[in-house]
Amino acid sequence: MPWDIRKRDSEYLVVSQTTGEVVGKHKSRDKAERQLRALYANYRPAATPGAMAHGGRMMLDDTYTPRPITDVFVDGRRVPVRQLKKGGKVMEKKPPLGTGERFAQLKAKLAGRKGVTDPAALAAYIGRKKYGKKRFQELAAKGRKRKTG
């Protein structure tokens, strides 16, 4: 059951070539292509009815049984769906807690924003909100120990 992308008005439709059924509607071609890649990655065509296998036994019929999408292919490599962000970008693994790398990354990200005068203070505020005062202080102390020792 191959699929195509067709544009109708301002939408991109993912359409079955055999039945003409609309499988998905998207605002951008990129999102439609992501769905198309996922469909093809998980599609296993069955033999047509009446096809014979070795020994004269019947092969599978032409029914399509979907399975849950767990992996997709992005830039030629297999990626679990849970690691995809919006726009099809792959999330990289985060550095471990207590190393100070996450804090440094957040600080650098905040430094590039307009209106942020003290990115370190803002990153500390965000960390305290996320982890709580006690846990954040433990992580900060752990990071300081790694930095000095």
Helix content percent band: 25-40%
Q: What is the count of distinct domains?
A: 2
Task: State the separation between the terminal residues, measured CA to CA.
Answer: 60 Å
Helical/strand content category: alpha+beta
Name the helix and strand elements from N-terminus to C-terminus, one letter apiece. Answer: EEEHEEHHH
Word description of this protein:
Helices cover about 35% and strands about 15% of the residues. The strands form two sheets. It has a three-stranded antiparallel sheet, with helices on one face. It has a two-stranded antiparallel sheet with strand order 4-5. The chain is of the alpha+beta class and about 150 residues long.
Could you list some keywords that capture this structure?
three-stranded antiparallel beta sheet; two-stranded antiparallel ribbon; elongated; 149 residues
Quickly describe the structure.
This protein is α+β, with helices and mostly antiparallel strands.
Task: List the SSEs and their pairings.
Elements: E1 3-8, E2 11-16, E3 22-26, H1 29-41, E4 71-74, E5 77-80, H2 101-111, H3 119-131, H4 133-148
Antiparallel strand pairs: 1-2, 2-3, 4-5
